[in-house]
Amino acid sequence: MTTGRKILEKEIIIAGRPLKLTTGKVATQAGGSVLVSYDDTVVLVTATGSKEPREGIDFFPLTVDYEERLYAVGKIPGGFIKREGRPSEKAILSARLIDRPIRPLFPKGFRNDVHIVATVLSVNQDNPPEIAAMNGASAALTLSSLPFLGPIGAVVVGLIDDELIINPTVEEAEKSRLHLVVAGTKDAVMMVEAGAKEVPEEIMIEAITRGHEEVKKIVAFIEEFREEALKLGLAREKMEIIVEDKEEIKRAVTAEAYPILKEAVEKIIAEKFNKQERDEYLENLKAELMQKFLELYPEEELTIKGTIDSIQKEIVRMKILKEGVRIDGRKTTEVRPIWCEVGLLPRTHGSGLFTRGQTQVLSIVTLGAVGDVQILDDLGIEESKRFMHHYNFPPYSVGEVRPMRGPGRREIGHGALAERAIEPVIPSEEVFPYTIRIVSEVLESNGSTSMGSVCGSTLALMDAGVPIKAPVAGVAMGLIKEGDEVAILTDIQGIEDALGDMDFKVAGTKDGITALQMDIKIAGVNREILTRALAQAKEGRMHILSKMLEVISEPRTELSPYAPRIIFTTVDPEKIRDIIGPGGKIIKKIIDETGTKIDIEDDGRIFIAAVDKEAGEKALNIIESLTKEIEVGKVYLGKVTRIADFGAFVEVVPGVLGLPGKEGLVHISQLAHTRVKKVEDVVKEGDQILVKAIGYDNQGRLKLSRKDALPLPEEEREQKNPPLTRPRKGEK
């Protein structure tokens, strides 16, 4: 096909499947545009930057949007409005995956707006679109004029029977103990995110290393793609970054501010200031310095502020690297004081308060019926999930005042990380037939609230009596690196996160890792640093776990009296219609009558949720009566409901909720052992009689017999069983 455009297509085999990049074909007005195809998964990724830097800001304005289109999996959006609305949680998490490894790879001081848009056009579930999007974002940035210091590559690593698998298929992922996303440059790992089923640290290191080997191939492929694109005029020369020379101002500020800030940091350490005291003290001091230097350099507010912040950062980092002393006086391996409590809230199903230093999280568990699962309307193969963790971060937790709106990307990301950490220990539906929701409320924040949520959630689950497979704890690690000097910090607080080079969160049980998230702010870290960090994180995690288990060592044996009791039964799937009734009439009457919640699965499983045990048992009895089978040959006590010339109708299973029960016909010939002239001579309406089920007619109607349920008359018994006669005397 002739398009009149220069088009470049290039392909590489990753995990046995073709990864193809195409540029020049679509979206050519974007700064960089790549159509990524990984087998049948197709994602369009564009990277566009503003021509001029944004004035008056001291951060890099990068925005990543991950656009899910349900046509990609042949779906029409649910709900009243049949178009995609706000991003799903999965889309937000995918956007964060793209953002995190590329953000550190822009030059310091770069202030141009950069917008990356990944639009998912087609999805083969065996080839995750988020991985295609990450590699596409790297390629689009590499083709653009933006000063991206990449490229990067990204893969997923799975673990099946001790074998590491790259980009596992859906079938492989179901068997895998690990879902690890690795992103990095050709030289180092930039970002790691994992959910795991208690995978040991040494295997996790091997998985990261194996993933990085594959990443290097993708990076080399993207570099070759750019070289060929340049020859065709499909890639742009990198823009020149003009940074104003402010060295004279910086030297003047540093000369005066450095000793003042150094003395301030030493005072904070010596007098063990808490977060509020430290923040107030440093803010006041920096405000005084700002005022003084603004009088000398009135047009250089950002330069002065940036220099003062850099001085503080350098002093704190050097204290750690050279003296092994942190700003709160702790050693590098020391965890802040911990205290925990469970059962705080009397009416909730379970609650746990976890406090570590000035980070405090209250987690609350709610148990619901199976039908309370979250319905998912996104590009994934899962339609629902029965375990949810939600994370809230109110402004008062850091002493601030700001509007409270819906959860932002940070809240969704932190909530998902904690959910990933806890999910491997949640009991199966067969063992514990409940939907489980945890809400973690951050009450105080001074670093690593996501790991505090993991700890608080574990406490709350055990308080709720959820039979988790093992308790989970989490810890956040940090890194300070200058040249060959490296310090790894256990349990970082907010200032160490801001001033450090790595945020490395690890959660797990005593036997292994369940979740991992690492973000690097420098050019990457090597295997040696990762190994040290994971080993130190395990020590910290075990310490935290021991403090938690001092408060509650195992799940409670009884649920809260306010939690629903789930009664489970199964019926023949063919009987489901008898329970539901026409238009749902019968099931609605059962629910209204008993006050329970009833969920019926297509395979005949029935879950009855009731806080009142008697109400649950009443609902169960009703369902059993509706589905009770009448066994041919068995005798039943029935009630005569009506009389006809040809026989009596007898109800052998009572009706419920004003609905008719199960009845059959006792034909007049089956009423007695003797001939009956008139039905009323033997039974009347309302009589209770014994009847025997003798079969069904050709229309499926039950046939009953009163005669067969009665003992035989004496003469008939004698005829069937004649008495034994003794021989006369003398007879043989």
From TrEMBL:
Binding positions for Mg(2+) per the UniProt entry: 497, 503
Keyword terms of this UniProt record: Cytoplasm, Magnesium, Metal-binding, Nucleotidyltransferase, RNA-binding, Transferase
Cofactor names: Mg(2+)
SUPFAM superfamilies for this protein: Eukaryotic type KH-domain (KH-domain type I), Nucleic acid-binding proteins, Polynucleotide phosphorylase/guanosine pentaphosphate synthase (PNPase/GPSI), domain 3, Ribonuclease PH domain 2-like, Ribosomal protein S5 domain 2-like
Disordered, as annotated region: 705-732
Record-linked SMART domains: KH, S1
Domain S1 motif: 633-707
Name the record gives this protein: Polyribonucleotide nucleotidyltransferase
Originating species: Carboxydothermus pertinax
Gene: pnp
